Amino acid sequence: MKILITGTSQGIGEAIARLFLEKGHTVHGIDRKEASIFHKNYTHTLCDVRDRAHLPEIDGVDILINNAGTQNEDDIEINLKALIAITEKYGVRRGIRSVLNIGSASAHTGAEFPEYCASKGGVLAYTKNVAIRIAQFGATCNSLDPGGVLTPLNECVMNDPILWAQIMDETPLKKWATPEEIAEWAYFLTVVNTFCTGQCILVDGGESINYHFVWKD
Questions:
Q1: Which of 33, 39, 41 is nearest to 8 (CA)?
Q2: Which of 101, 109, 164, 175 has a C-alpha 20 to 30 A away from that of 132?
Q3: Partners of 45 in the β-ladder
Q4: pTM for the full model?
Q5: Residue 14, SS3?
Q6: pLDDT in tens, 134-186
Q7: Residue among 125, 103, 98, 126 nearest 189 (CA)
Q8: Alpha carbon of 92 to those of 15, 133, 136: distances in Å?
């Protein structure tokens, strides 16, 4: 199948792209950074997802994975508006099999920077909108909403012992996911799954269920 993934130069997007390549698929990546993957079945387009005029023409996309995102840098434009533009261009059409948006646990809890939470919250609503519209093609659309993931973007807290201890106190499973683990979820939701749609699936180590109930022993 032909897979289009945004934000493939590092982290979750790179891990998803590599997994699909390992499974024998053809992958097109869009990223504003240079390619980090060199494979005969991988094509990289150097482009900011906000730059609608220069998005590549790619016909026959079977699976679209909207992974590109940012934090505290024009969040609504990148995380939400660009995601919508990408989806409308490549995903809402006959022949699409699945659309997957990489959201965030913060969209469910509001526990992060205001514009980031708002942008990811919009992704949740838009996911349901797309699911309704592409159901006529027999296609699914879901969002995969991770909590903490061990990526370069999170190294500022991962490498701070005090902050890391505080984060682990908030995470019942006492660990963060690897990008490869999130990639497995992405593969399942787009290739294996054919019936779950319009859902926003939390993968956060239990962070969102930690409600701090305090009572006397």
A1: 33
A2: 109
A3: 30
A4: 0.95
A5: helix
A6: 999 999 999 999 999 999 889 999 999 999 999 999 899 999 999 999 999 99
A7: 98
A8: 25, 7, 10
